[in-house]
Design a protein that fits this description.
With 133 residues, the chain is of the alpha/beta class. It has five helices and seven strands. The relative contact order is 0.26. Belongs to the TsaE family.
């Protein structure tokens, strides 16, 4: 599925994600400044929270309540994530948004049978293209 939206229209995408019955892990890829954190911020707002959403670059994971988890795994190896217990975190009920979740993590999730969705964000001027795989 592909959808092209402006930042003002992002709530439409959040509505679709919120309606998914199985919630789960979202591996989000996109260039720096493409809107990965903006998506999570809008999702948190969509679910009625006024939590301050920032990229968890230095803390690895932020939990915003309502079952929303936000990870930034830039430059992290899968072995590091496993040692830190991140895969076990993915088993918690809720939405797990993983910035920079790439092929290595996807293969590992396949092996341990943790379902996930991949979401690539591409910049197109004032719009973003959201590509689900």
């Amino acid at each position: 599925m592909e959808i092209k939206l402006s930042e003002e229209e992002l709530d439409r995408l959040c509505e679709c994600i919120a309606l998914r019955e199985n919630k789960g892990v979202y591996l989000i890829e996109g260039k720096l400044g493409s809107g990965k954190t903006a998506l999570v911020k809008q999702f948190v707002k969509h679910l009625g929270s006024d939590a301050s959403v920032t990229s968890p670059t230095y803390v690895l994971c932020n939990h915003y309540g309502n079952g929303i988890y936000h990870y930034d795994i830039y430059h992290k190896k899968v072995a590091e994530l496993m040692a830190l217990g991140i895969l076990e975190e993915f088993e918690k009920e809720g939405w797990h948004f993983v910035e920079w979740g790439g092929d290595d993590l996807a293969r590992t999730l396949d092996v341990v049978m943790i379902p996930y969705k991949r979401l690539k964000i591409e910049m197109e001027g004032d719009f973003r293209k959201y590509i689900f795989k």
